[in-house]
TrEMBL record, chain B:
The keyword Oxidoreductase does not apply. The lineage of its organism: Bacteria, Pseudomonadati, Pseudomonadota, Alphaproteobacteria, Rhodobacterales. This is Paraquat-inducible protein A. It comes from the Bacteria. Keywords: Membrane, Transmembrane, Transmembrane helix.
Length: 217, 225
């Protein structure tokens, strides 16, 4: 059940409109001029105006790291018969050649589809927060929650490389060492996580309210 | 409530505060969309959800504090002991090797890769441990009806900020993927630490479900003596 609402569904009030500033860490509200939350000590900003700049800065850093992550090898495998170094896509293609289409698909989804989708989703959220969008805010809030949830799971690739490099050290028979792409991929994941965290999701809703008010006038 | 709605129509930016007729500490603002509500504790087991963006605002659980403490202690024990047991072991042509979490973290040893090793160790061991210790530090006095510990509020905020960077459960799933990847290269077996981390994944999910941050913040408002 919802806590008693302040003013009914039709004319819902935001903390900002009520002359208050909300703490995003602990949900407490304070008078608009307050600088730090008296309860949890977090810095208070009614709307993070630099939010979109930070989003784009981390977004670009993430993209810049994502490019070499795809060009350089992620893993270098040496066995008795051969030595091979694989990029992310190259590794998936090789696995597909062996007939394991399912695993190849999982790798492609986790390392290519999800990161690329994340870049596009964050860009869409940032652009629509400024320019407005026909996509309803509820839908955009969902997109944001999915991006925040899924972001950390991309680290799985880096952990797999770490585990394999530690484990597969059988002198000359088989050994695996991490390639440079492991580092840039990890950086790319961290930067996109920071990009998503910098986004002030309240901007989604402000814009929607403003549009609706313009429509009614 | 109808009175409040009526007086909000005025253009006075401060109308909200007077119109609500509630002191500030009784209000709650949705962290996702800034909608303002009068906070009302739902019945135990219920949830207060923002009706604009559907973010869960308050979700008190029965005996949550005690359960969280128990689960947190369990996680502490699991992470610490999992550090020293092998995670996976591998055999091929009579040669064998096994890797623990620490081995995985130190697998990146040269140059800039060492940074990656440090980061890996941080997110799979250090951050989860620190987070658990902070939660214990904050919740133990509250659950036993004592005044909050010194700097408890800051500690709790940090524990919440660290949440996305605590990746022990992702590492556990990574193990399963690694297993599939080298299945044709050599024989692989699970070590004790793998099973510990599997349990840990489940506990972490339950633990986050029990933790109602609004309830904790409310309890930390009690002044220290």
């Amino acid at each position: 059940m919802v806590g008693m609402e302040v003013s009914g569904t039709s004319a819902r009030v935001t903390a900002r409109e009520a002359g208050l500033v909300a703490c995003r860490a602990c949900a407490r509200v304070w008078p608009a001029e307050t600088e730090r939350c008296g309860r949890c000590g977090a810095r208070l900003v009614s709307r993070d105006t630099a939010s979109l700049q930070k989003v784009w800065a981390w977004w670009i850093a993430g993209l810049v790291c994502y490019i070499p992550a795809n060009l350089y090898p992620m893993l270098v495998t040496e066995t008795l018969v051969q030595s091979s170094s694989n990029t992310i896509v190259g590794g998936a293609v090789e696995i597909a050649h062996h007939g394991a289409y399912g695993i190849a698909a999982i790798i492609l989804i986790a390392s290519v589809l999800i990161p690329v989708g994340k870049f596009m989703a964050i860009a869409f959220l940032a652009i629509s927060a400024r320019r407005g969008s026909h996509v309803p805010p509820t839908r955009r809030q969902h997109v944001y929650e999915i991006v925040e949830f899924i972001g950390r799971w991309s680290m799985i690739d880096v952990f797999v490389v770490a585990i394999l490099s530690a484990l597969v050290q059988l002198s000359s028979v088989a050994s695996i060492t991490p390639g440079p792409a492991a580092l840039t991929f990890a950086l790319s994941v961290v930067f996109t996580m920071l990009s998503a965290q910098s986004f002030d999701s309240r901007l989604i809703w402000d814009r929607a309210r403003k549009n609706r008010r313009d429509d009614t006038q | 409530m109808t009175d409040a709605a009526a007086s909000l129509d005025t253009d006075d930016p401060r109308a909200g505060r007077t119109a609500l007729g509630h002191p500030l500490e009784e209000l709650i603002a949705c962290p996702s969309c800034d909608a303002l509500y009068v906070a009302q504790m739902p019945p135990v087991g219920g949830r207060a959800v923002c009706d604009r963006c559907h973010t869960v605002l308050i979700s008190p659980k029965r005996k949550a504090g005690m359960r969280i403490i128990a689960l947190t202690v369990a996680v502490l024990i699991l992470v610490v002991s999992a550090m020293f047991f092998p995670f996976l072991d591998i055999h091929r042509l009579g040669l064998g090797n096994s890797a623990s979490i620490l081995d995985a973290a130190t697998a990146f040893e040269t140059g800039p890769m060492a940074l990656l090793g440090l980061a890996t160790a941080a997110v799979i061991v250090v951050v989860p441990l620190v987070r658990m210790l902070l939660i214990l530090y904050v919740l133990t006095p509250v659950v036993f009806d004592r005044p909050p510990a010194r700097h408890a509020r800051r500690a709790f905020r940090w524990s919440q900020e660290l949440k996305p960077w605590s990746m022990a459960e992702i590492f556990a799933i990574g193990c399963a993927v690694a297993l599939v990847k080298v299945a044709d290269l050599a024989q692989i077996g699970f070590g004790p630490a793998f099973w510990m981390f599997s349990v840990l994944v489940v506990i972490v999910l339950f633990n986050d479900n029990y933790l109602c941050t609004w309830s904790v913040w409310k309890s930390l408002e009690r002044p220290r003596e």
